[in-house]
Design a protein that fits this description.
148 residues; mainly alpha; AG1 protein
Length: 148
């Protein structure tokens, strides 16, 4: 594409202004409440998400084991009686088990990641506070040498 062609396309796009991209903010004049800009999540919000993930993990573990056991028992009974449906139900029970494990892993990952993030930020905050206070102490030392 030649430079002149690029400039022409830019000029045409500027004339059409009806279709343009807008990121990280509401359109002008359409405030979405009292806050604008970046997505914010406080510690309380994160704790609630982590708690919900942990509760889902605990409850679903119990319920999914019961469903799997009941399905496997039914599949075994049907197969033992010569019904082809028994093999199909056995397949469904296996898939249920696999999918349940995937969901449980995701819940555990969410809960663990939020716990890790909280601990990591606490450590970072402590480090930053220590560094800043060290700088303040150093500055005070320089001020004392200057006679302030």
């Amino acid at each position: 594409m030649a430079w002149d062609e690029w400039e022409q396309l830019k000029a045409q796009a500027a004339e059409r202004r009806s279709t343009r991209m807008q990121l990280n903010q509401y359109p002008a004049g359409q405030a979405g409440g009292s806050t604008q800009g970046d997505l914010m999540a406080g510690q309380k919000d994160l704790e609630e998400v982590g708690k919900a993930a942990h509760e889902l993990f605990d409850r679903f573990t119990s319920y999914s084991r019961h469903a799997r056991a009941a399905s496997e028992a039914a599949a075994s009974g049907l197969k033992g009686e010569g019904f082809a449906l028994g093999g199909a139900l056995e397949h469904v029970a296996r898939r249920w088990s696999e999918q349940s494990k995937t969901l449980l892993d995701a819940c555990a990952h969410i809960s663990n990641h939020l716990r890790y993030t909280k601990n990591r930020h606490t450590t970072d905050d402590s480090y930053i506070a220590g560094t800043v206070s060290s700088i303040a102490t150093l500055d005070k030392g320089f001020d004392d040498r200057k006679g302030h």
